[in-house]
Amino acid sequence: MPSREGARRRSERHSLRDVSKTSVTVRVPAKVNLQLSVGPVRSDGYHELATVFQAVGLYDEVIARTPSEPGIRLTISGEGEGTLPLGEGNLAYRAARLLAEHAGVEAAVDLHIHKAIPIAGGMAGGSADAAGTLLACDALWRQGTPREELMALAAELGSDVPFALHGGTAIGTGRGESLTSVLSRGEFHWVFALADGGLSTPAVYGECDRLRDGRSVPDPYVSDMLMQAVRAGDAVLLGKALHNDLQPAALALRPALRQTLEVGEDYGALGSLVSGSGPTCAFVARDEEHSLDLAVSLTASGVCRTVRRAVGPVPGARVIG
Ligand code: C5P
After folding, report:
1. CA-CA distance, 145 to 147, in Å (whole number)?
2. Which stretches of the chain drop beneath a pLDDT of 50?
3. Ligand 1: distance of its center to the CA of 48 in Å?
4. pTM to 2 decimals?
């Protein structure tokens, strides 16, 4: 006969296992493109890119829980609460379904996403949520999917999704999904000015094409100055090297961003640019104290909805609980 004490221990172990199986929390960072060089349009309609991504410490949290019934249910709080699609229209939902299909398991998960990354803001918030969901569901469903397979699924979901898993600083080529790590020294202090309302990424790429007006476009490239700045942790040089080919298009669609960039420059930002396809504007500060001053000035000037500070680079999506 098993002892009562043994039964109690077994039952404790059992319930601990259950607890670890029923909920997984993943933290996943936003990105900023230090350089976004947009080349010609490819036959699949995407643009050939050479970009340098940096993951920054502004995070969404994805919580995956074992549901009481099969299916995928998604809830969202924070940025974009009440405005984002909660079904197939949401990339995180599609990420859960894609992983389930790949793994050959039933798609059963309650997903909750707490968002701090602005929506349609050019900081890859939707991509971050998809990457976080892949990782959270993989842990919840105990699949242990190899990293390369997760990266391939991520690339299937969107051009920026692999980088949200990767993190750090990396060069992205192809559509942006093909990544090479970049060694980076120290940390950079960023200030982000979040705008009212988002910009649609396809619309910004479309406007970029319209502004180019059929002119031939050189192959995209990463500048030596930028690589040197990142390798040396040189914020002054980084400020000079920041460049985004989508910026003229984002400014054409949202002229008020010009003023946001000007205010940051007036208050001594080492460099400024529209983040990705915008409308978030990113500023590099000298150090933490300067980033606080810049944040206060941008807030007081009323040229943006709100301001966030973050350091980069930070690691990609991680299970934190
Ligand atoms: O890959 P993803 O679905 O995130 O891309 C969103 C849109 O951005 C694409 O439909 C396309 O209009 C544009 N895009 C592009 N070239 C890229 C990446 C994105 O034209 N390299």
Report:
1. 6
2. 1-2, 7, 9-20
3. 10
4. 0.93
